[in-house]
Design a protein that fits this description.
It is a single chain. This protein is an alpha/beta fold and about 400 residues long. The chain is about 40% helix and about 25% strand. A hairpin with a 2-residue loop joins strand 15 and strand 16. Helix 1 packs parallel to helix 4 and helix 2 packs parallel to helix 10. The longest helix is centred in the C-terminal third of the chain and has 22 residues. The two termini are about 40 Å apart.
């Protein structure tokens, strides 16, 4: 096959690696509009389960990614001025730029052609004219998807809170949170290391806090100075960095959740953020994009798939939409938990941190926080309560979502 992959993010590059490794006769070109080494974001997170899937897909790139990653097991939260620690499963962080470089190198070694600084304007672009398969891996603002938005059934909803993606010179050895109460409401930060020199810091707050603190009007330097003062005990005197690319200041955004009813049209198929997004607070965006690539590679590798491309792409879309249900539900409840943060901040810090870890639960919004904490602790030791919680949660979720429609 001749394949054109539009977008040189993790999903597009990894798909090129998988397909070229499985069938060296494929002719694959990746088109990326930005210069090589230029990317948004700081570090990305993933968990051990993804590494096993990457090793099965391509051991060499999996090994390179693992070797370039940092790891942590603890979660630390500073609530007001009190620090609490929770033990947890191992998590991993890697610089987005580093991951992309590793995947690009592996793709080139296999014979994939990568065209940097080569934007593709839309599905009628000449670069795509003779491709057997066109992969839209060009992100949430995908020009290829937008050309047929009605066909794909694209829906976008914006979250209420504001957030900004920053870096810092402090290297965190745990996944860390800080929650600060101001005269204008709560503001909080998620922070995690991704190399021996840098960490990611995502700052979030309600729109009322954002405007009340003046963050909607301050320039970048003044905004960073204010945030450094607010989170001084988390940062230990280290600076925040707003520019992840030369000349581009960090922007405050409202998160956009994207879904699509179908994932392909003819020989055009969606991948990664062009197909779906999940709220950053569950740390799954890169993992889900790479899993998309694995699923699409499997679909294209099935017997007869190249002769019946429509069936292969239909099965890929159905499989991934089904697999994403749990992550999308978790992301929806996680985002809402943060949007309703004041509801939980009267708890003592250790209990608040425990509920933070349970924020994906569809039951939590409907149970008083103190009572939910007690029930959750009881369920941890009583099997009948655990079964009741597992049974009741999905039913509450379906009822709420059905009422919302």
């Amino acid at each position: 096959m001749k394949l054109a992959i539009v977008g040189g993010g993790p999903a597009g590059l990894y798909l090129s690696v998988l397909l070229k490794r499985r069938n060296p006769s494929h002719e694959i070109t990746v088109y990326e509009r930005n210069p090589e080494g230029s990317t948004y974001g700081w570090g990305v997170t993933y968990w051990a389960g993804l590494l096993g899937k990457l090793r099965a897909g391509d051991p060499e790139s999996a090994r390179a990614v693992a070797d370039a990653s940092v790891t942590w097991t603890d979660g630390v939260a500073i609530v007001r001025d009190e620090r609490t620690v929770h033990r947890g499963d191992a998590g991993f962080g890697i610089g987005r730029r580093r991951m992309l470089a590793l995947l690009a190198d592996r793709a080139r070694d296999l014979g994939v052609r990568i065209e940097f600084e080569h934007g593709v304007s839309g599905p009628d672009a000449p670069e795509l004219a003779d491709a057997d398969l066109v992969v839209a891996a060009d992100g949430v603002h995908s020009a290829l998807r937008e050309a047929y938005a009605d066909h794909f059934g694209s829906e976008v909803t914006s979250g209420r809170n504001r957030y900004v993606w920053l870096g810092t010179t402090k290297v965190f050895d745990s996944f860390s949170f800080a929650f600060k109460e101001t005269g204008h409401g709560w503001i909080w930060c998620y922070a995690y290391g991704f190399s021996g020199e840098r960490s990611t810091c995502v700052v979030e707050c309600s729109p009322e806090t954002w405007t009340g603190l003046g963050l909607d009007a301050l320039g970048e330097a003044d905004s960073l100075n204010l945030l450094e003062k607010l989170f001084h005990d988390l940062l230990d005197g280290h600076e925040l960095i707003g520019r992840d690319r030369a000349g581009e200041p960090a922007q405050w955004l409202a998160f956009r959740t994207l879904t699509n009813r179908v994932w392909h049209r003819g020989n055009l198929v969606l991948l990664g953020d062009a197909a779906h997004t999940t709220h950053y607070s569950i740390g799954a965006g890169t993992t889900l994009a790479l899993e998309d690539a694995l699923a699409l590679a499997d679909a294209l590798d099935a017997p007869g798939s190249l002769q019946d491309l429509d069936t292969a792409l239909t099965l890929y879309g159905k499989r991934r939409r089904a697999e994403l249900v749990a992550a999308q539900s978790a992301a929806r409840y996680s985002a809402r938990w943060y949007e309703n943060l004041p509801r939980y901040m009267s708890l003592e810090p250790a209990r608040m941190f425990a509920l933070l870890g349970q924020r994906h639960s569809p039951l939590m919004p409907h149970v008083p926080p103190q009572l939910y904490y007690r029930l959750d602790r009881a369920a941890g030791s009583l099997e009948p309560l655990r079964r009741l919680k597992r049974w009741l949660g999905p039913r509450v979720a379906r009822a709420v979502h059905g009422h919302g429609r």
